[in-house]
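hiii so um. not sure if this is the right channel but i have a protein structure encoded as tokens and i wanna go backwards to a sequence. like what aa goes where. can anyone help
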């Protein structure tokens, strides 16, 4: 008899995908990889994916926040020069 959530193979896979997308999103196309990291992180956490899913979820949020800050800085810089 098992108590608590069981960890499914798909949850582990989703957690790993989330973590990889979160790390890649820090360097390339943060908005796309950030959204993917959040989606796979939520799926992984629901299935009992554990720490990788949580880390990917957090990195996905950081990716999107940094992308929004970069976009705002780029637009602010565009108005300064023109």
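sure thing!! here u go:
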């Amino acid at each position: 008899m098992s108590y608590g959530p069981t960890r499914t193979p798909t949850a582990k896979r989703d957690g790993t995908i989330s973590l990889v997308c979160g790390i890649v999103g820090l360097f390339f196309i943060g908005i796309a990889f950030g959204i993917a990291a959040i989606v796979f992180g939520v799926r992984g956490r629901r299935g009992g994916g554990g720490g990788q899913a949580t880390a990917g979820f957090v990195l996905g949020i950081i990716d999107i926040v940094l992308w929004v800050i970069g976009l705002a800085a780029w637009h602010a810089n565009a108005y300064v020069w023109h």
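oh and The chain has a mean pLDDT of 82.
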